[in-house]
Amino acid sequence: MVAQDDRQICLFVDTLIDVPVKDDAKLMEYPWFSLQKHGRTEPFHYEKQTKHGTIRIDVKPGPYGMATIFDKDLLIYCQTLLMDRVNRGLPVARTLAINLHDYMRVTGRSTGKDGYQLVKKSLQRLQTTVIETNIKSGDEAQERGFGWLDDYEIKTKQMNGRRVMTHVEITLNRWTYKAITEDRRVITISRDYYNLESGMERRLYELARKHCGNQEFWHISLPKLAERCGTTQDLRSFKRDLSRIIECDNIPDYHIAFAERGTVLTLPEEEDPAATVSGGPKPKRRRSANDRVIVTFMPKTGEKRATNEPKTPLVEILPPEAA
After folding, report:
1. What is the CA radius of gyration of the chain?
2. How far apart are CA 74 and CA 17, in angstroms?
3. d(C-alpha 44, C-alpha 254), whole Å
4. Domain ranges of the chain
5. Residue 137: CB partners within 8 Å, gap ≥ 6?
6. Which segments of the chain have a pLDDT < 50?
7. CB atoms within 10 A of CB 39
8. Which of 24, 205, 279, 316 could form a disulfide with 44 if both were Cys (CB 3.0 to 4.6 A apart)?
9. CATH architecture under which domain 198-304 falls
10. What pLDDT, in 10s, does the model give residues 68-100?
């Protein structure tokens, strides 16, 4: 891999039609994005004690609202492009140019006028959302606030008497760039992820892919799952929506189920103690039956797995690290 100076524009024109889609393992493990399509306006705080220290994440929305899990498609596209070039030993840089028509085709978006305007709104939210975290990237922890994008510039040209957007030059923040090019902190995900229309379904797939992977199952309590999703719902509403998702069974590669009543399960060590989450509804002091519900994730067997996904565990999945 040849790393370029941050100021150099790296005009990537590679096609991603047949390239395995990559996502940052840390972005899949913790809640960073709004699950709502139009971006929430309340700040979000997540804090969790682990054997590696305290994980802290603060996300503050900008004037256009908080970046959403659908806006994240732009980051996934950039990460996939970067990782492909790293694997092929080609030059990479923090600034890259994306052909908007190709991006919209790959992610299943409309290529009409409205589709381009939605991409512009995604760029605005990604740049103005402020993230503060102590999760390491490269050999250092980020102690200052940063946006998902340092900069973007939309390029247009005259076509049929009107100006249309053709591509966008995006400069990724250093935290994300180092995670891909230095840590190679990525996991292959299914292209069917782009077909999920619910933010909740997308988040559940991320957690299933990150924590279950190719294991037989992964158990998590309902309250912890709600925390990991970063939902603004109360636990009862969260369970209701989760039940509908379980019934539809649209999550790529994974089944989700509630553990049967009376089943004795041993939860992983990371389940205790609980994370501290703020920015959503205040939890009730009194424990309810929902606090004791266990959710199980299981790989779908005998079905087509993620594109180009090997049967053995993928890429390196790093344990949580704190500054």
Report:
1. 20
2. 15
3. 28
4. 1-189, 198-304
5. 174, 175, 176, 178, 179, 182, 183, 185
6. 1-2, 5, 7-14, 266-267, 269-273, 281-285, 304-323
7. 22
8. 279
9. Orthogonal Bundle (1.10)
10. 999 999 999 999 889 888 888 888 999 988 888
